[in-house]
Amino acid sequence: MAKTLDDYIEEITTLAGGRDMSTRWYRDQVRTIVPRTFSEGGVTRLIKSGNTSSRPTYGTMNLYMYDPKLKEVLEYYDIFPLVMPIKKHKDGFTGINFHYLSIPMRLKLLEFMRPLAGENRIIGWTRLARYKLIKPCVKRYLAPHVQSRFLKIDEEDFTIACMIPVQRFKKASTQKVWADSRTKAL
């Protein structure tokens, strides 16, 4: 039976022994425990295996499957976004998709976002707009194009979730997306 996201997180948390470890330690554990890539079916199983809901949880990270309305005109897109929703719309939401950044940049963004996060907390744009790493990550998601339930990532698991390689970009390589994001953030 395939491991779930919760299984990976539990294994890494057990290794930490309840201690607050460095980001480098967590990254090294993710590299040794988690597969380098997940198949699309594997990511879908990860989403189905955890604490899911039919709506995103604001102020926390959510992982889900997405099929963009305008995928034909987009340069590239992520079908498994890891998003912290920041604004509600009548037909969806705007969120920060961490997958558009390389892992070290994700962790810097997470360090900035963590004090603002909190379950069911809407984070105001004025607090975020000044932070350059946000720019390439702000994406608009339409509710009818969400293809799965939303897997809520607990705050204590944000760091691990940022490091698990579940992003799936279509029409471009992950390295191209990250290079473009680095340019936009500078």
Summed up, the helix count is: 7
The total strand number stands at 8
The tally of domains stands at 1
The span between the termini is: 43 Å
Percent in strands? 15-25%
The secondary-structure element order is HHHEEEEEHHEEHEH
Question: What proportion of the residues is helical, as a percent range?
Answer: 25-40%
* Main sheet makeup: 6 strands, antiparallel
Average pLDDT level: 83
The rough form would be described as globular
> Ranges with pLDDT <50 over ≥5 residues?
none
Assembly state here?
Answer: single chain
Q: What class do helices, strands and sheet pairing give?
A: alpha+beta
Strand order of the largest sheet: 1-7-2-4-5-6
Radius of gyration: 16 Å
What are the SSEs and their pairings?
Layout: H1 5-16, H2 23-33, H3 40-49, E1 52-53, E2 61-63, E3 77-78, E4 82-89, E5 92-97, H4 103-113, H5 125-128, E6 138-142, E7 150-153, H6 158-163, E8 169-170, H7 174-185
Antiparallel strand pairs: 1-7, 2-4, 2-7, 3-8, 4-5, 5-6
Helix pairs in contact: 1-2
